[in-house]
Amino acid sequence: MTLAPKIFAAGDLRVGLTAEYEREIEESDVLGFAANSGDFNPLHVDPTFAQHSRYAQRIVHGAFQIGLASALIGMHLPGRDVLLGSVNARFLSPLYFPSRVRVSGEITAWNAASLAGSVRVTVSELASLMPVSEITMAFTLQAGKLEQPAGATQQSRPVEAAFSADRKVIILTGASGGIGAALLQALTEEFSVLALVHRHPLQQRPHHAVELQADISAPGWEQIITERLGGHPLYGIVHCAWAGMPKGGLLHCDPRLIEQQLAFGTSHVVRLARLLFSLVGSDGGRMVALGSSAGRHSPALGLGAYSLAKSALEDTLRLLAPEMARKKISINAVCPTFVSAGMNAQADDLQVKRERALVPMGRICETEDIVGAVRYLLSPAASFISGQSIVLSGAQL
Predict the structure, then answer these.
(1) Is pTM beyond 0.70 here?
(2) C-alpha span between 370 and 380 (Å, rounded)
(3) Phi, psi dihedrals of residue 288, rounded to the nearest 5°
(4) Nearest CA-CA partner of 290 in 332, 334, 230
(5) Is 120 part of any domain?
(6) Which end of the chain is more exposed for a tag (fewer CB within 10 A), N or C?
(7) Which residue from 24, 86, 32, 89 is spatially nearest to 63, judged by alpha carbons?
(8) What is the extent of the structural domain holding 114?
(9) 259 and 319, same structural domain?
(10) What does the pLDDT look like over 92-133, one tens digit per residue?
């Protein structure tokens, strides 16, 4: 029996939407794939050869697993009207057979205006519950052929505002966070802002702000942003997004957590810088990242992974500065001390008083201090400042 693919309309898709299925992988499946693809590598088809390899037994083709991911987007999410654009695969551990796997996917980016998005697919071996591969697939929906799912009601969607021709465009990551929201409100007074959000949409969207759901930790978001800009030159990027502030030292920290934190201060920053470098106009541009005094200035032992990553962020910006300068782009970090907003929004009065007592100026850092520093670094007055970390310390050593 052939299953009918699901049908998702553009209005039904959003970042965070998930789907999954399970299936058995037998010897006949792997041998059939070898016959259809022509890939008879003995690691997959010859038990004697595989027995004397470092894997000790035959493993499933990596391309077979990509096929499992293709089945997820083609049959489950987004379903029938999807068109695959690109594939980025990472194989974490060998997948042996026979086995049963779970194939799960999550939309990590979606732009309703261009009908483009990406799905991150994880293939996990069920006996051990260990992920064996992570596959990101960029996709588009076939325009003009979208159907409303049975039983669903059509909802009107507001047309996204276009970028003003008389305003420079900047990208703001983490726009729905506490500090990000304050920056969004302030920056839209002067710029057109492409506000990137992940799981949480904007509570309020100011005039001259365009909201876009995207996960900067997944491949494929650069294409979606480029399409959304529609050829408009990019002036700057303000990077506020961060993967939380995990507590604890480094010795007993999950390595995956350290890698996640480091990515937000290194590889994600590099990808953002590459995007700005490729889209900036002839007059140059600006990039500002939100660091922390817990980085290089005053590392916090109780925030080991966070401090390490924030320190790496500052070094990443310093290394990028000479390269970005070729297109007259400055790149800097704003590193506040304790702020009772964003990740510290739940701090109680006692903690705020303790932090205030440490600051010679007699008050803690406020979001307005961060906004002021960012606006300065985006201004023409700061065109010769690059590769620097500005610590908002209130004279605290």
Answers:
(1) no
(2) 18
(3) -130, 130
(4) 334
(5) yes
(6) N
(7) 89
(8) 10-141
(9) yes
(10) 999 999 999 999 999 988 888 788 889 999 999 988 888 999
